[in-house]
Amino acid sequence: MSGTTGRPLGRRTFVLGSAAAAGTAALTGPLAETASAASFGWSDDGSNYVVDTGASLVFKVSKTDGDLTSLVYKGTEYQGYGGKNSHVESGLGTSTVTIAQSGSTILVSVTYGTLKHYYAARSGENNVYLWTNKADSSVTATRYIVRVKAGLFLNDEPDSYTYAPTVIESADVFEKSDGQTRAKHYSKLRVMDYSYIGWTTGAVGLWIVRSNHEKASGGPFYRSLLRHQSADGGGLYEILYYGENQTESERFGLQGPYVIAFTDGGAPSSSLYPGTLTTSWADSLGISGYVSASGRGRVAGVGISGRDTAYAYTVGLANSAAQYWGSARSSDGYFSIAGVLPGTYTLTVFKGELAVYTGSVTVTAGTTTTLNTIAVPSSNDPSNASAIWRINNWDGTPGGFKNADLMTYAHPSDVRASSWTGNVVIGSGTETSAFPCYLWKDVNSGIIVYFKLTAAQAAAAHTLRIGVTTAYANGRPQVVVNDTWTSAVPSPPTQPSTRSLTVGSYRGNNYTFSYSVPASAWLTDTSAYNTLKIYVASGSGTTSFLSAGTAIDAIDLLA
Which residues, listed in sequence order, are joined to residue 375 by a DSSP beta bridge? Predict the structure, then answer.
């Protein structure tokens, strides 16, 4: 997604950014021309350490609990709303807070039990660099929230509820008077889709530039709340582990830096982006868990064969301690993933968001591990199987199905959503666009797919496959063919236990249900339509869009 909204930057403009967005923006990071730093330094006002970056930014950190209590840029205070400060999680409580200056860097260190958090300032920069080292689960989640005063940046976008006073779900999903929905969850973006998040007035931009998420959980396709805006104020987030719709166990260790960046209205400098930012200046600061560039390695693959070139491919590395990813080049599948901590990783190749290859790779500090061409076996891509008919293609997402795109930034009840009911006819040309991306027990269970078979096809047993990307409350498909043959209720696969379908995310664990349909189930009249009814089975969930449900990837009947 580009770094601008495509309209003039005004008071109500916001920006979600990608690495390609800010090529012409004014530099504000390590590669920027150093501003006058005559006032660079720190002081103690009794309650806070006060850091002047020597540019246009002065910030304060509480000596009691490590909260960021003030962010003054060009004389304007941006921090705080509702009596709350900016901080890790919802605030750490009484902590040990120290400050030290090393040449052109000032570092504030916060220790709260086993958790350590850091703020750094560089002479002449309008940035605050942050690291968080979470050693265990004694602090519930891993997030940092920058709380911003009301009225400084206004917007009416999907992740805003400034103009949405009616609560429709769980006190965090709202409906406007025109029927559109708003929630802080509706960012639209996967973590791999953005490098920064924030707002601009056209004259001032306030951003969080995300870290590389090596200690986060969920991989490149994870979605989480990124920011919110309400009448009380706004919030910008760096979330590493939120406990909502998580597909992996929590990782521990030092994460960062992520950056609070002020600009003159443009996007933050690309020199701050994950994968671009260099922090050799932090190598000797004594940050707990810090690993310099020289202590990291790189993985490079010369190519990937067996790809479907209609799809983007991503290569992921993951173990219990860290995760990384990189895009495969569309022409040949070449990929390069740098800055990797030493260790052995599971390497996964994704077609879209569907894993089609897994292997292992070992990374050594200071070296590049070069991999020969990775061959994706034909059988690993379910799209390669011969099918009598197929609804959508297999890519690990519900993309292409009815309402699929809208559901990353709206509630299923949104006025813009097409009807969740309606049956599908194979051969109509609208099979995919007419099929709803999500099925719920209390909303559209029992949807019917109509199809014809030749005499030879009807004389044989066939395998029916239904791919899903996540489920809520153990929702899973049970099928009935021609009202005469009913499948067993399949066991539920492992899926996140929290909300997903109503908070902008279809990302869970991809799973394929297979049903062996006997020949006796088919109609022998080749001119008649067979019927496939798909029900949602589960005793969990409540009602409506919080009843048991599942997100669909693809459905096919194999030849």
Answer: 305
